[in-house]
Amino acid sequence: MEAFRQILEKLGFVGVLTELMMFCCTLWVAVILGIVVGWAWKPKWVEKGFATLGKPLSVPSRERVLGSQTVEESKSIRETTVEESGVTSDDLEHLNRLVKETDGGSTWIPVMDRSQPTFSYQAWRRDSETGGPSQYRSKTVFEDATPEIVRDFFWDDEFRVESKWDDMLLYHKILEKWPSTGAIVVHWIRKFPLFCSDREYTIGRRIWDANGSYYCVTKGVNYAAIPRRSKPKRVDLYYSSWYIRPVESRRDGRITACEVTLFHHEDMGIPWEIAKLGVRHGMWNMVKKIEPGLRSYQMSKKQVGKEESSRYALIAATNSKINAGCLTNREASTSSSESSTAIRKLQRKSNPSIPRFLVIGGAVVLACCTLDRGLLTKAVVFSTAGRLANVRRR
């Protein structure tokens, strides 16, 4: 307080206000330039780090990280085994623990609660305990909809593009499928708004039928036939899975509604705080497009027979039957704990910490290069840098 009083006496109120305005303008220019440069430039060590993500991890148990879980590495990508889709029973158990909130993660924070006559929507967010991207959970209840129609709707990439209810999807292709289980690997290219470039995904998918409720797992997987390119940028860490079940209608209490619980997180290659801001502002606009898309899909299914359904809908109807009671007995499997450890290592590699000396050095440069070289500006810069350095040290 004494230092601030001396600065105020020396500069006066107008001088202090002028310095603060100059500092804020300089800081915002630096932030904007940093974002633009960060998107346009990437050091070689980042390229090498992401390149290693596309290769199997060398561990004694011959396991590799695929999306949110681990699977045994297969000998050949073309052999028709379920494990090669990148989705196994470990993923089913993981999704079940997320649904029951027994996964051991941090508390979910409510971010949205909206409702309309034909559907309701709730959303939560939690930050990753390992420094990864924020995780999102949502619960949507559609009136007058069956779990089967909702299952097919979210699985049907052809309808996503044709109806444009998901206007971010530019390209999709089924790379490989396993008719016995309905597991598939798909290739996606999605467009991102503003100055973000397109993003590329190779995604493993599989559905389990638990007595009329559906566990639908989709996550990023490695696929050797699709080599990594500089553009579009490959998204390695991707997880988006649903639990779909019939529920009572809000109108009359009959089982005529369908509830969809979604869990989603991905590392899009942009600063996580900026991604969080974009999700918060764009979430409701995206959700509002889903319900009209579903109603249009319902009408189209009534007009065509089963033999005219899309490839994706036919695949969605081919799934693995399970007893829901069996999931409870397998929640404490050791493979899931090993998978969590591997994912923590992967996320830490993709978001390296900033050394303390860089924080302090950056503060020195900013203080020295500030346009008016005022005392107040330097005091704010060094105070902020000191706090940041202490946070990094802890």
Automatic annotation (TrEMBL):
What is this protein's name? Polyketide cyclase/dehydrase and lipid transport-like protein
Q: Which GO terms describe its molecular function?
A: lipid binding
Instruction: For this UniProt record, give its keywords in alphabetical order, as a comma-separated list.
Output: Membrane, Transmembrane, Transmembrane helix
Q: Which Gene3D superfamilies does this chain map to?
A: 3.30.530.20
- Domain (START) ranges: 108-299
Q: Which GO terms describe its cellular component?
A: cytoplasm
Taxon lineage: Eukaryota, Viridiplantae, Streptophyta, Embryophyta, Tracheophyta
Q: Note the CDD domains from the entry.
A: START_STARD2_7-like (cd08870)
Instruction: Write out the transmembrane intervals.
Output: 20-41
PROSITE patterns given in the database record: START
